Amino acid sequence: MKPVLLALALSLLATLVQAETGRRFPHSQITRGEWQMYLNEVRAKPGVETLKPKGRPETTAYFVSSERTAYYFTTGGPAHPAVVVTRLYERDGTLRLQNFGYFAGSEEAFANWFSGFDRLGPEIEARLKTKQP
């Protein structure tokens, strides 16, 4: 039951910060078609860099330095199709890192996959800070 509560909390948090962070969709649960459309949009962004994150064979990462944002799309696995967006932003003179995401499959699998990004926070933050425009 904990993963479901986590996903609900994330959904509430996402709603509260939607305007500030530029979320693409108003809710965390999206359709497979919306997931594919979002993947196509991210791949078409100017200056996008594609990477395969170490230890995450089910994921392809897209970095857009001009947005200070990383997009992690599943390529398979229990959470597929899903995406986690990691954005570096400034508030009150301090750089902050925010993760939010969308899923079109299992909510529980997404919550488990999403929680793994908390452990990667320092690594992601360092990468995004070095890619600042």
Name some characteristics of this structure.
133 residues, alpha+beta, 41% helix, disordered N terminus
Report the average pLDDT across residues. 81
Low-confidence stretches: 1-19
**Total domain count:** 1
Lateral strand order in the biggest sheet: 1-2-3-4-5
Oligomer: single chain
Radius of gyration from the CA trace? 14 Å
Question: From N to C, what is the helix and strand string?
Answer: HHEEEEEHH
Q: What percentage of the residues does DSSP assign to strands (E)?
A: 25-35%
Largest sheet: 5 strands, antiparallel
Shape: globular
- What is the count of helical runs? 4
Which class of secondary structure composition applies to the elements? alpha+beta
| End-to-end C-alpha gap | 41 Å
Helix content: 40-55%
Tally of DSSP β-strands: 5
What does it look like?
This protein has one domain (2-130). The protein is 41% helix and 26% strand. It has helices at 2-21, 32-43, 107-119, 121-130, and strands at 49-51, 59-64, 69-74, 82-91, 94-103. The protein has a five-stranded antiparallel beta sheet with strand order 1-2-3-4-5, sandwiched between helices. A hairpin with a 7-residue loop joins strand 3 (69-74) and strand 4.
Layout of strands and helices, then pairs:
Blueprint: H1 2-21, H2 32-43, E1 49-51, E2 59-64, E3 69-74, E4 82-91, E5 94-103, H3 107-119, H4 121-130
Antiparallel strand pairs: 1-2, 2-3, 3-4, 4-5
Helix pairs in contact: 1-3
